[in-house]
Amino acid sequence: MTTPERFPEVQTPPEQGGPKLEVTPSQEASVGVASAKSSSSQPAPIIGGTIKEVQAPMPPKPAVTNIPADNQSELEELSKGNVDEASTWFGVFWLRRVKQAVLDGIHVIFKK
């Protein structure tokens, strides 16, 4: 046995024939609303805000990575040392940074 489908009742919106309010021009100006029958060439005043000037965005600065070594061969020599020494990991770290910078298109500057 099947049950009939029940659809929710659709409520119709009330009519728009409610009471009309008369708005004087001084009330329109205080609220910042211009009426359609107003033919003044002045725009409605802005209340509670100011107009800010839009500035063009600054062009991005070129990305630069400064490497604290004279050249890449010096970093390669440092990276081949004993794994217990900090200078080995220093060389490995900066070699990795150079490779990442080259892949990302960043300028690499060595100390001299």
Topology:
Elements: H1 25-31, E1 64-67, H2 72-79, H3 86-104, E2 107-110
Parallel strand pairs: 1-2
Helix pairs in contact: 2-3
Structural overview:
The protein is mainly alpha-helical and 112 residues long. Helices cover 30% and strands 7% of the residues. It has helices at residues 25-31, 72-79, 86-104, and strands at residues 64-67, 107-110. α2 (72-79) packs across α3. The mean pLDDT is 76.
Portion in helices: 25-40%
The largest sheet, given as strand count, sense and whether it forms a barrel, is: 2 strands, parallel
Query: Separation of termini?
Result: 91 Å
Provide a count of the helices: 3
**Major sheet: arrangement of strands:** 1-2
Task: Please state the average pLDDT score.
Answer: 76
Structural class, please?
A: mainly alpha
Order of helices and strands: HEHHE
Please state the overall shape, judged from the principal axes of the Cα atoms. Answer: elongated
Q: Would you report the number of β strands?
A: 2
Provide a compact summary of the structure.
The protein has 112 residues and is mainly alpha-helical.
Key phrases:
112 residues, mainly alpha, 3 helices, 2 strands, elongated
